[in-house]
Design brief:
Helices cover 4% and strands 50% of the residues. It has 412 residues and is mainly β. Strands 3-2-1-34 form a four-stranded antiparallel beta sheet, with no helix packed on it. The termini are far apart.
């Protein structure tokens, strides 16, 4: 389960990162360091979301919502969006975790969690894209996307800019500087009243909503991620990469899948934080690493069985975690381009059946992987280094979607 040799550019970036974050690199004895981590978990069977203290497993709060909720944390971690596509509503939870940057350190503020009084309503909200100080909600059947300012939201005000998405479709919108990248539906095809048209490309619009340049082809566009200054989208043809441009807006480039790859495509993408790269699925039993600036941008990794969930470790950027349907958790080293550790962490959860059946989901908190196990009403805590289960957190019902918010910071 290995791939070709890793490009030197990523290896060099990793070495620089190790030096930057070496222990004691910016020690300051005048400050105390504090950690705080919270889990937010949506139940699969009941319309509610729980906030749980990661350290001791106590339930901090529970919030009744309208229906099945998918959870997305904002880029700052100050809010979590609970998207209920089947009920046309999005609730927002204040996490009570607040970091403020001071150059050589971050200050950490901890307060109570809370359900914000503002909700967002529209026809079938689905993709939620956090970026910098805002979040974009895309309404599949609403023909629009809402760009929401997070700071105003936390003050009790909804400062929203609406983006026209041409017509209803299962799409996405992502900001890049002062421009927005928006999926394009096939307007020529005739669909039944309960169907949405396929996606055929991506367009760039400016602050006034005016399209810049031509539509870039991206058949069946699905999946997006941001890494450093790049944004990537999954397409049937390959990975469409957007780079910051000049006055004419972002520059779009299609990275075609290699001819020697087996038949497949990417529909889910994750973006590296401390290093510039993307990790995507390639079909159900493979993943692909994408370095948009490398001579050979794609590295394909075979999985033993089909993928249930995967994510990147923001604190250990070379680690990606992949849970497969046989109940094994795999650590993918993105520098080596290989799976370096595997261990059984749950009983098998088959991928057969409905795509949203209750299966485990992953989150990372304080060097540990939190895995929901809806069949046993548990969240299993796995040490990322040893892949051994260190403890469990009992969660009533069927814990499903999960996000972790937190970290360490200075307390003056």
């Amino acid at each position: 389960m290995t791939s070709s040799q890793t490009p030197n550019r990523i290896t060099a970036a990793a070495a620089a990162m190790v030096l930057l974050f070496a222990p004691g690199a910016m020690a300051d004895n005048d400050r105390d360091t504090k950690q705080a981590w919270r889990l937010f978990i949506a139940d699969h069977a009941q319309p509610l979301v729980r906030a749980i203290d990661f350290v001791d497993g106590t339930e901090l709060a529970r919030y009744d919502v309208k229906g099945h909720a998918a959870l997305t944390a904002s880029a700052s971690g100050r809010t979590v969006f609970a998207t209920q596509s089947e009920h046309d509503i999005v609730h927002v939870i204040r996490t009570g975790i607040d970091f403020s940057d001071h150059g050589d350190h971050r200050d950490l503020g901890v307060s109570d969690v809370g359900l914000l009084p503002l909700t967002f309503e529209g026809k079938r909200p689905f993709h939620v894209v956090p970026h910098d100080d805002h979040v974009i909600l895309f309404y599949d059947r609403g023909g629009k996307a809402d760009l929401i300012d997070e700071a105003s939201l936390l003050e009790g005000r909804a400062v929203v800019k609406t983006i026209n998405t041409t017509m209803p479709h299962h799409g996405v919108a992502v900001t890049m500087g002062r421009h927005v990248l928006v999926s394009v539906p096939d307007t020529a095809i005739e669909t039944k009243p309960d169907e949405l048209p396929p996606r055929v490309g991506l367009r760039v619009v400016d602050e006034t909503g005016r399209q810049i340049g031509e539509v870039s082809t991206c058949t069946d566009l699905h999946g997006e991620a941001t890494s450093a200054r790049l944004v990537a989208f999954g397409c049937k043809e390959g990975i469409l990469v957007a780079r910051p441009g000049g006055i004419d807006g972002p520059e779009l480039e299609m990275l075609a899948y290699p001819a020697e790859f087996p038949k497949g495509d990417t529909g889910t993408l994750l973006g590296g934080k401390a290093m510039q790269f993307f990790l995507g699925n390639y079909g159900e039993d493979r993943v692909v690493l994408v370095d948009a600036d490398a001579d050979v941008p794609f590295r394909l990794i075979e999985l033993p069985t089909r993928r249930v969930d995967f994510l990147l470790d923001p604190a250990t950027p070379r680690n990606a975690y992949i849970l497969t349907e046989d109940g094994n958790l795999h650590v993918l080293d993105v520098i080596k381009g290989a799976i370096v550790r595997s261990a059984r962490v749950t009983e098998p959860y088959s991928k057969d059946g409905h795509w949203r059946d209750p299966r485990p989901r992953l989150a990372v908190a304080d060097g540990q992987v939190a895995i929901t196990d809806p069949r046993h009403s548990l969240v299993r805590i796995i040490d990322a280094d040893t892949l051994e289960e260190t403890r469990t957190i009992s969660v009533e019902g069927q814990p499903f979607s999960i996000v972790a918010v937190g970290g360490s910071g200075a307390v003056h």
